[in-house]
Amino acid sequence: MIAMGKKCLYVLCLAASSSFCLGVSTAHAATLTSEGHAAGAQCGASGVNNTGVVTGSCNPGNGTGAAVAYVSATLGAETTLPAIATGQTCGAGGITNSGVIVGRCADANDNVFAVTWNANAPTNPPTLLNPLPGLLGLGEDVSTGATGFDQLGAVIGESVSPTGTATAVLWPAGSSSAIAVSSPGDNCGATDVNNTLVNGEPSVALNCPNAKGTNIAKIAQYTPLGYEARPLPLPQSYSYCTVAGINNSLQAVGTCHTLAPDKPATAFWSTITSAPTMLTLVGNPINAAQFINNRGHVIFSYQTSTGQSDSGYWDPVTGVVKTIPDLLGGTRAGVAGFADNDTAVVNSDDANETVEAAMWTFANGTVPIGFEGGGVASALSAISENGQYGVGAAENSGHNLDAVRTQLP
């Protein structure tokens, strides 16, 4: 399961078509390699699969042209992906292990739609993921957006009405027709999707606004009558929860909130019907869930005693908690991706409050990766499911933004 749009935590950001946070540090154990500039002058990478195929977006050098999506099946060789309308902006977000690329494109009227491409046939036109059609063709929605996908090729996201209300939807693997996952126009947001099929479709994690101005964390599962969403159980003494992820074992992770003054804490649901296990940290700092992998292990963020943000690792079954150290001299570190082998890609600042791409493992801690092309800024944005590759962006010596890939040791 891949949730799109989870970014690093830092203020200093440069834009390709997405935002990538940048900074500086010292020696490294892995190497960042540029994907080149065949697709544009300013580039960033946002997705990579288990064989190292990279996707991302580039902006042109003149500052006025449309952003383009690309795929790089061979390291350093970007191939531009076609748009749905000539001269209109596209961006690629992520890629499955079979080569389905998920992204978005604007049409000739500047309406934005979720799309997919095929990395094995990158010159073929994209498939537009259609909005919900409405009843008898009336009141149909007008745009779509993708928020995640699974390795089977199903895509989750939203279908948006002419008035701006959204319905959470799923496009089944190989289909461009949306299935409603939430009630029409309820503005539920789909945050994650897994690979385990129930009645032929995967389960979807949802956050749904309620009349109190908070959210209800739900898991939606497919039935013969369509998707049915049920709330995740609330822990005692908490007023509401949000859900960040769901894995293939139907374990979920999220953040639960108390009444004011709010003390949010990370929650782990071992099943979607059981009360959650709450993360307990020394000193009781506020914390929030970020990722869950298929081992049931969790990455969370927490507020330090100085008010900065750091990250940590939690195994809810054994109770093991381990903080993810900053790079030497740093005061904050944010995880940008978490793989099934428990490797995380990290962006950490140093004593000069600058940021460098790094990797973290339970055995070796946080290891700096370094820079690329003579530059002094780098950050990673995604990791492959198997933990073998990381991708992101780095500023080179000419102050241009390179999309980069690293093979992780």
What is the makeup of the main sheet?
A: 5 strands, antiparallel
N- to C-terminal distance:
23 Å
Shape: globular
- The residue-averaged pLDDT reads 91
Number of beta strands:
35
Helix content: under 10%
- The tally of helices reads 0
Secondary-structure-based class equals mainly beta
Question: What amount of the residues lies in strands?
Answer: over 45%
Q: Spans with pLDDT under 50 lasting ≥5 residues?
A: 6-28
Please compute the radius of gyration using only Cα atoms.
Answer: 20 Å
Strand arrangement within the widest β-sheet reads: 1-13-14-15-16
Structure commentary:
This protein has 409 residues and is mostly beta strands. The strands form 9 sheets. The chain has a 5-stranded antiparallel beta sheet with strand order 1-13-14-15-16, with no helix packed on it. Strands 4-35-34-33 form a 4-stranded antiparallel beta sheet, with no helix packed on it. It has a domain at 129-232. The chain is 0% helix and 49% strand.
